Amino acid sequence: MSITRARRKTLKQSNTQAPVRRRLLAAWLAAIVVSVLLAPRPLLAQDWPKSSISLIVPYNAGGNTDTMARLLAGSLTQSLGQTVLVENKGGAGGALAAEFVARAPKDGHTLFFATTAQTSVTPFVQTVRYDPQKDFAPISIYGTGPNILAVSSKLKVATVEDFIKYAKANPGAVKYGSGGNGTIGHLAGALFGKRAGIEIMHVPYRGGSQMMTDLMAGHIDMYFGNASEILPMASSDTIKILAVSTDKRLPNLPDLPTIGETLPGLVVEAWNGLLAPAGVSASVQGILEREAIKAVRDPAVIEKLQKLGIVPGGSTAAEFGAVLQKERAVYRDAVIAAGIASGG
Description:
The chain is 45% helix and 19% strand. By secondary structure, the protein is an alpha/beta fold.
């Protein structure tokens, strides 16, 4: 009898507590739902991109910049699930493309595959209708094209120190070539001359092929050129490669010194990177940064970039922003050294 009463009591308590447990469970589930709804979340696939993306290139089709842009476009097309279309808008040193992107909608569907020139050179040498510091949001550096210092073998110099000594002994007689006034090659040469304390004469060309021909023939004495132009001639006995203008020695050329080892602090690099119009949401910037970094770390992409003479990038947005700030001061000095009227 006592056992029966105990069972009845237990059953009564269970029936009494059941609604309480149900209410607690419901409250617990509700709290989970609310926390999920209110928690920060990544942009969902249906939020962005909503349509195809235009990747604006500041030069005409062909060349390293266009080739790299198309590599990135292919990677982003796969990872974002929307077509990324390369649009070439050459002219005015890339200023036309930069202005177009600066005034584009801030929805992440127009991006800029920029170069050093549009942010740190062109605004100093001509009047532009965009602000390189305020109109763009840095995403990631895709690759860097090291500038190689090459000289004619007729000079009989073996090091940067030898070349500087030769130039000091022959003031005004040493000629260096570039792709034209205001180009990175021009500014790099002028800044090198200023830092080295030598007087060298600038000879502008319309293209790299004739310049390399004249360098090999000894018609000009020096050239700061892209690795893709100079390295194929490295085995020639007509030119001598003296140094690279990066801050560190190149992994594929560990015996080639940097110019900074002779002239500390002299670093002149030319990057290609992804920018968005300023005002693009932080969520979109974050997705682009992640996917751009992932794209350039693909072994197949790395191999293709290295064949172009490009050092693969993969910087964060913060690192890219720091590069932009630092190099503007370098190129401002270079413009002054070159005697070019500043545009801004």
